[in-house]
Automatic annotation (TrEMBL):
Main localization (coarse): nucleus
Gene Ontology cellular-component annotations: condensed nuclear chromosome
Subcellular location: Nucleus
RecA family profile domain span: 104-275, 281-363
Gene Ontology process terms (BP): DNA recombinase assembly; DNA strand invasion; homologous chromosome pairing at meiosis; mitotic recombination; reciprocal meiotic recombination
Coiled coil: none
Keywords tagged on the record: ATP-binding, Cell cycle, DNA-binding, Meiosis, Nucleotide-binding, Nucleus
Keyword set includes Nucleus: yes
Organism in which the protein naturally occurs: Hibiscus syriacus (Rose of Sharon)
InterPro entries xref list: AAA+_ATPase, Dmc1, DNA_recomb/repair_RecA-like, DNA_repair_Rad51/TF_NusA_a-hlx, P-loop_NTPase, Rad51_C, RecA_ATP-bd, RecA_monomer-monomer_interface
Protein name: Meiotic recombination protein DMC1 homolog
Pfam families associated with the record: Rad51
Molecular function GO labels: ATP binding; ATP-dependent DNA damage sensor activity; DNA strand exchange activity; double-stranded DNA binding; single-stranded DNA binding
Length: 363
């Protein structure tokens, strides 16, 4: 569990660690570099107006999308892409280079060593972590804790960066962040100032908010993007089987944008997801549920966590799917100690939900 810092010590550490953030600017190339490569400044401005602020982000768009930007012809797009290819390398690299690139990945603590061990060190940057489960299972509690732990120095397993929070269900509570910040010994006012928050009301509004983030992330050191929840507005704005195909297509575009943001700016994306009843779950499952969003959402998430309710106030977090993590569970402390012997020894990951957010269980 992370030790508590005094506010002065925390601010000093954050100022020292800020130098490390400045050294990460080579993770992406600013779109302004196209001007020195012979691209008209007016055309660069058009790209920025369309939400493209880095050459890396530019290369993640198809030429069809780029020609859809007002004022950019096919000839201009070809010239822009050719110039961008000379600035950033989007071709093959060796496995050794890929391993070296992975060293830029930061793992942000969840506030609980048990959950961190479950996740291989914490929530990863350059990846999407999905947490699905029914209401009151702990998903939003983890989101609020991450709002604070992301701002910790990297020496304390934080991200030393700002947080962007897109709220589709109206569950963000700034007053909830205050006791969590106090637990970590941080100034609540400064912590809240480093969170940019937006309430989304339609799926289109949600997508436009993502487009607007590129400008902020290209100028300021963000380390976490929270979307709580990713599916809610799609389930409202699209109804019936007749609109299912269109819904999944729009959802896929949203998720594609999230993946690009994660990799372009080396930020962690934590998104919550709802569950739906699964009639075909089997007779041996008392309350069968599965995550909403279907295969489109399943393939987009890098790491999938399942949150569920247990006995009394007990909560269980399980690694549902991950490319590099074994299947294991973490169980919240309340009412669960007597059941721990049911778990294999190496899977005893115990945490609790406290007024100060997600934390390790105490005896």
């Amino acid at each position: 569990m992370i030790g508590t810092l005094k506010a002065e010590e925390a601010s000093q550490l954050q100022m020292v660690e800020r130098e490390d953030v400045d050294g990460e600017e080579d993770l992406f190339e600013a779109i302004d570099k196209l001007i020195s490569a012979g691209i008209n400044a007016g055309d660069v401005k058009k790209l920025q107006d369309a939400g493209i602020y880095t050459c890396n982000g530019l290369m993640m768009h198809t030429k069809k999308n780029l020609t859809g930007i007002k004022g950019l012809s096919e000839a201009k797009v070809d010239k822009i892409c050719e110039a961008a290819e000379k600035i950033v390398n989007f071709g093959y690299i060796t496995g050794s280079d890929a391993l070296l690139k992975r060293k830029s990945v930061i793992r942000i603590t969840t506030g609980s060593q048990a959950l961190d061990e479950l996740l291989g060190g914490g929530i990863e940057t350059s990846a999407i972590t999905e947490a699905f489960g029914e209401f009151r299972s702990g998903k939003t509690q983890l989101a609020h804790t991450l709002c604070v732990s992301t701002q910790l120095p990297t020496s304390m397993r934080g991200g030393n960066g700002k947080v962007a929070y897109i709220d589709t269900e109206g569950t963000f509570r700034p007053d909830r962040v205050i006791p969590i910040a106090e637990r970590f010994g941080m100034d609540p006012g400064a912590v809240l100032d480093n969170i940019v928050y937006a309430r989304a009301y339609t799926y289109e509004h949600q997508y436009n908010l993502l487009l607007g983030l590129a400008a902020k992330m290209s100028e300021e050191p963000f380390r976490l993007l929270i979307v709580d929840s990713v599916i809610a507005l799609f389930r409202v704005d699209f109804t019936g089987r007749g609109e299912l195909a269109e819904r999944q297509q729009k959802l896929a575009q949203m998720l594609s944008r999230l993946i690009k943001i994660a990799e372009e700016f080396n930020v962690a994306v934590y998104m919550t997801n709802q569950v739906i009843a699964d009639p075909g779950g089997g007779v041996f499952i008392s309350d069968p549920k599965k995550p909403a969003g279907g295969h489109v959402l399943a393939h987009a998430a890098t790491i999938r966590l399942m949150f569920r309710k247990g006995k009394g106030e007990q909560r269980v977090c399980k690694v549902f799917d991950a490319p590099n993590l074994p299947e294991a569970e973490a169980i919240s402390f309340d009412y669960c100690c007597r059941y721990l012997f049911w778990l294999p020894p190496k899977r005893k990951h115990v945490f609790q939900i406290t007024p100060g957010g997600i934390a390790d269980a105490k005896d």
